[in-house]
Design a protein that fits this description.
By secondary structure, the protein is mainly α. Helices cover about 70% and strands about 0% of the residues. The protein has helices at about 5-25, 30-35, 45-50, 55-65, 70-75, 85-95, 100-105, 115-145, 150-165, 175-190, 200-220.
Length: about 220
């Protein structure tokens, strides 16, 4: 078989087609064959040369869509004009306002039915998000007095795992009212752990996101 001289172009073509199909049909309703049919002559072998499964394609689509996120997080973490609590609030707000994330979340897979993707998300939280971004910010907050805790690592893990798993409608489906109730309970937990993170604007943004997610689930059913 002839060697592909432009593998990056091929990968970008696959990801572009896959993203369009995921947005049009949803992850669950899109098959590998659907992607092949839209690739203008690219073979199944060419796809599997780069991706072993639809799950890998989805993860690559997510990585591509959020390639600027690390730069954004680093910029907030290293901002000398903010204390630790202000940095956490800014990161939380930026995450809630991320249009690409919200749009992809509305068509993404149910993570409980896709354990590989769920495991990959948890792994990224524990190996990247917590030690590289969140824990250093919480430790700064301990030094500057804006965050009160004796357990920076554990608080970092609780914050990120509960936010991305327990409060994620892609993992645990619930009505917007129930999800917002969970957010308020989560706020009480964090305050008890020395972290006063939420404000009314964040509550409102969470409510908007939960209602969008509920509408997408209703369409699928």
């Amino acid at each position: 078989m002839a060697r592909n001289k432009y593998p990056e172009e091929t990968i970008n073509q696959i990801l572009t087609v896959a993203l369009n199909l995921f947005m049009q049909k949803g992850y669950e309703q899109t098959s590998i064959q659907d992607i092949i049919n839209e690739l203008g002559g690219l073979t199944k072998g060419a796809i599997y040369h780069h991706f072993k499964s639809k799950e890998e394609i989805w993860q690559a689509v997510i990585d591509h869509a959020f390639k600027g996120v690390d730069e954004m997080l680093s910029g907030i973490r290293d901002d000398k004009g903010l204390n630790g609590l202000e940095k956490l609030r800014k990161i939380s707000q930026a995450s809630l306002d991320n249009a690409a994330r919200n749009e992809l979340a509305s068509v993404g897979p149910n993570l409980l039915r896709n354990p590989k993707l769920l495991a990959a998300q948890i792994e990224n939280i524990l190996e990247n998000a917590v030690p590289v971004y969140i824990q250093p910010i919480i430790e700064q907050g301990m030094r500057d007095g804006s965050i009160r805790t004796d357990y920076p690592k554990e608080l970092s893990e609780v914050l990120v795992i509960l936010t991305n798993i327990w409060l994620n409608p892609e993992v645990i489906e619930a009505s917007p009212e129930m999800m917002l109730h969970k957010v308020r309970f989560f706020d009480e937990i964090l305050k008890g752990l020395g972290l006063d993170l939420f404000d009314e604007q964040m509550y409102q943004r969470y409510e908007e996101l939960f209602r969008v997610s509920a509408r997408e689930v209703s369409k699928e059913n």
